[in-house]
Specification:
The protein has helices at residues 14-56, 88-98, 118-131, 175-185, and strands at 60-64, 70-77, 80-85, 103-108, 111-116, 135-137, 144-146, 150-156, 159-164. By secondary structure, the protein is of the alpha+beta class.
Length: 205
């Protein structure tokens, strides 16, 4: 059987290759600028929004185009706080004195290890978290204990979440589409001064 000669692949048009590579280079440089500009804008917005919240209790602010069209909003997500053991010795001593069955002692070679049963520790911390203060109410005697070695501390800082509007009967275009249209028409130039300039010289992709 005679083997068919292999056909050599046809090289792409050099101009098409150059255009594709140039497009990648241009968009890569602009992408770096957009990331940096967005980071700066978010930092500035978060600072102003947090100051507004502390002064007036405002938790939501709309983002609008120059003509007043709403494109989205930023909502404040409250931080979280929870009870944490900050002084193990003080907490263990309290458990030993008031709930000895929840306090364990292990005799290891050359040392004695004391600890609090995880289930009880979790129960105390959960109740303190719910109450917003380091206290525990005995389920049998109803005695209220101020738990030593435990404090309510932040576990997650407050943040701000940006969401864009969705299309509706009154406004068919979604927020992202409105931003794109505004950018192409030039009405958002004042909001994007960094992107109106040529990319700065510097790093490579």
């Amino acid at each position: 059987m005679t083997e068919q000669p292999q056909t050599k692949p046809t090289a792409p048009d050099p101009a098409a290759i150059r255009d594709a590579v140039t497009r990648q280079a241009v968009l890569g440089a602009l992408l770096d600028q957009v990331k940096d500009a967005y980071k700066d804008a978010k930092t500035a917005a978060d600072d102003l929004l947090e100051r507004q919240y502390k002064a007036a209790g405002t938790t939501k602010t709309d983002a609008t185009l120059p003509d007043g069209t709403k494109i989205g909003s930023v909502s404040r997500q409250g931080g979280e706080r929870a009870a944490q053991v900050i002084d193990e010795d003080a907490f263990r001593a309290w458990v030993r004195d008031h709930y000895p069955t929840e306090h364990t002692v292990e005799f290891m070679p050359a040392q004695v290890v004391t600890s609090v049963r995880p289930g009880f520790s979790g129960k105390v911390l959960a109740e303190a978290t719910a109450a917003g203060t380091a206290r525990y109410i005995d389920p049998v005697t109803a005695e209220v204990h101020d738990v030593p070695g435990v404090e309510i501390r932040p576990t997650r800082a407050a943040s701000h979440r940006l969401t864009y509007t969705r299309g509706s009967k009154e406004q068919p275009s979604a927020g992202r589409e409105l931003v794109a249209a505004g950018w192409h028409s030039g009405v958002l130039t004042e909001h994007l001064p960094a992107l109106a300039q040529a990319p700065a010289e510097g790093g490579e992709q």
